[in-house]
Amino acid sequence: MAAVEYVKEGRIAYITLNRPEALNALNGDVQMGLHQAMVDFRDNDDLWVAIMTGAGDRAFSAGADIKGFRPFTGDVEAEGRVPEKPVRADTIWKPFIAAIHGFCLGGGCELALTCDIRIAADNAQFGQPEINIGFIAGGGGTIRLPRFVSRAWAAEILLTGNRINAQQALEIGLISRVVPRDKLMDTAKEIANTIISRGPLGVRATKEAMIRGYDMNLEEGLAFERKLAAYIRTTEDFMEGARAFAQKRPPQYKGK
């Protein structure tokens, strides 16, 4: 059984963490499977949106597989670590939707933070419990979380290790929707299909502008946005979108 299930359905890629017996904990096999799925999704022109979720009924991911932890000696080769930098969702300009249910903790929460849109089932629980074992949310949690919620909330989550429920996550802006558990994947697919109906090059430029622009000052960000907009105006998709709007018909985008 693959640690990560990767399924393509039309323009949508489904990336499912597939260790339900271990609450979809992140081990080496999962990390490698995620990397391979990310690379394929990034490089496949026929895929426009990815939905990431966890197998089973109990968890999106409960975080790193603690049983696999051991003291790090500082010798990367001796530790058997892969030197290649893993590909993350927030370095791919195609949109990612995280469909979260059950436990979304530690590395699982950090994985969700790399996605663009996060929706949650009403049974979801979020947290960064690394501090409880004297560790740090070192998979991006200390950096990304304060960018998505207030610093006060980020500090409380990171420094206490306490969990919050789906409704609290919605209230602080960590997620955009809470839905019944049995509606989670249908809702994710509905959002994905809406995005697919938009111009894919415009969608990707929008994501790139949001992510890269975050670290720019206002003038730099606006200049970068203008550069992307100038490029999009030269594409076949933009011309098709404009024609379709004038002709009052659905556009037929090709990603060109």
Please describe what this structure looks like:
This protein is α/β, with parallel strands linked by helices. It is built from nine helices and ten strands. The strands form two sheets. The protein has a six-stranded mixed sheet, with helices on both faces. The chain folds into two domains: 4-196, 2-enoyl-CoA Hydratase, Chain A, domain 1; 200-247, Orthogonal Bundle (Lyase 2-enoyl-coa Hydratase, Chain  A, domain 2).
Distance between the termini: 37 Å
Return the structural class.
Answer: alpha/beta
What is the fold named in CATH at topology level of the largest domain?
2-enoyl-CoA Hydratase, Chain A, domain 1
CATH architecture of the largest domain: Alpha-Beta Complex
Main CATH class of the largest domain? Alpha Beta
Could you give a quick summary of the protein structure above?
The chain is of the alpha/beta class and 256 residues long.
Write the topology of this structure:
Blueprint: E1 4-9, E2 12-17, H1 28-43, E3 49-54, E4 59-61, E5 96-100, E6 103-105, H2 107-113, E7 117-121, E8 125-127, H3 141-148, H4 151-160, E9 164-165, H5 166-171, E10 177-179, H6 184-196, H7 200-213, H8 218-232, H9 236-247
Parallel strand pairs: 2-3, 3-5, 4-6, 5-7, 6-8, 7-10
Antiparallel strand pairs: 1-2, 8-9
Helix pairs in contact: 2-3, 3-4, 7-8
Key descriptive features of the protein:
2-enoyl-CoA Hydratase, Chain A, domain 1, alpha/beta, 256 residues, 16% strand, 4-stranded mixed beta sheet, Lyase 2-enoyl-coa Hydratase, Chain  A, domain 2, single chain
